[in-house]
Amino acid sequence: MSGVNEKKVAALEAVKYVKSGMKVGLGTGSTAFYMIQAIGEMVKNGLNIKAVATSVETEKLAKSLGIEIITLAEAKRLDITIDGADEVNEEFQLIKGGGGALLREKIVAHNTDLNIIIADSSKRVSRLGKFKLPIETIPFATQLIISELEAMNLEPIQRLKGDQVYRTDENNDIIDVNIWNCDEPLSDLEQCLKAIPGIVETGLFLTTTNVVIVAEGEKAVSRKR
Ligand SMILES: O=C[C@H](O)[C@H](O)[C@H](O)COP(=O)(O)O
Q1: Ligand 1 pocket check for 81: Cβ under 6 Å
Q2: 199-202 and 133-137: which strand pairing?
Q3: Which residues does the entry assign to the active site, renumbered to this chain (predicted)?
Q4: Could you list the residue range(s) of the whole structural domain that residue 102 is in?
Q5: 4 has a pLDDT exceeding 70
Q6: Is 96 near ligand 1, meaning CB less than 6 Å away?
Q7: What single-letter DSSP state applies at residue 225?
Q8: Looking at the domain assignment, is residue 34 inside a domain?
Q9: Are 98 and 155 contained in the same domain?
Q10: Predicted ipTM?
């Protein structure tokens, strides 16, 4: 539906899950932006939460809106995390990391009781992989990992920012790979990638998601695992 901001529609549905007293994980990206703004409004109206940010960008935005940020170590465990995704399939599996925040996002998701993914309708796919899979690597190993990924026919491309190498919040590199032609199960691919020394994390989120909220025009459609 033209003119409808589906990212905002999904975000506004997701923040209904956030209640006073909760410890909340805040995702990163243009969809998460609307969720953080909405939580900022709720905080102004008396909502009492503590939040953990999945990126420097999210932390800055949340603080500017008066949301209290604590470290993951202080939180220990989060009640709920709301985050975006680059692709989501029918099995609640995701590709994330288009914005480079996959490492902190995966750590936060792993330490959360209820993970909610919010997305506009363009993110819903029957098969993951049209979006290139981001892989975070230690700079010391990046060039050798690229050669290894080339040998696996994954068409690796090191992410750049302008004419500079892109660096994550953890000061690592990102390599984007093409998994569209991979025949093996995604869990095998994930295991295989994580077994390469120097690969810190991949943007495949296969098991952590509990709820997916996809906006279809003005309607937010929720699916629970
Ligand atoms: O690294 C970035 C995150 O994984 C984002 O949640 C993901 O890229 C989706 O971002 P957006 O909502 O901007 O499409």
Answers
A1: no
A2: antiparallel
A3: 105
A4: 6-123+206-216
A5: yes
A6: yes
A7: -
A8: yes
A9: no
A10: 0.99
- Rounded distance from Cα 29 to ligand 1 centre (Å): 4
Side chain identity at residue 159, one-letter code: R
Q: Which of 5, 6, 31 to mutate to test the pocket of ligand 1 (most atoms within 8 A of CB)?
A: 31
> 81 and 137 share a domain?
no
Residue 222, domain member (yes or no):
no
Question: Does the pLDDT of residue 210 top 60, yes or no?
Answer: yes
Q: Could you give the CA distance from residue 109 to residue 24 in angstroms, rounded to a whole number?
A: 11
Write the CATH number for 63: 3.40.50.1360
The residue to which tokens 């990046």 are assigned: 142
Determine the atom of ligand 1 nearest the C-alpha atom of 30: 13
Q: Which residues are catalytic?
A: 105
Report residue 124 as tokens: 């819903």
> Are 106 and 19 contained in the same domain?
yes
User: What region does 129 belong to: left with phi over 0, alpha with psi -120 to 50, or beta?
Assistant: left
Nearest to 202 by CA among 72, 94, 84, 52: 94
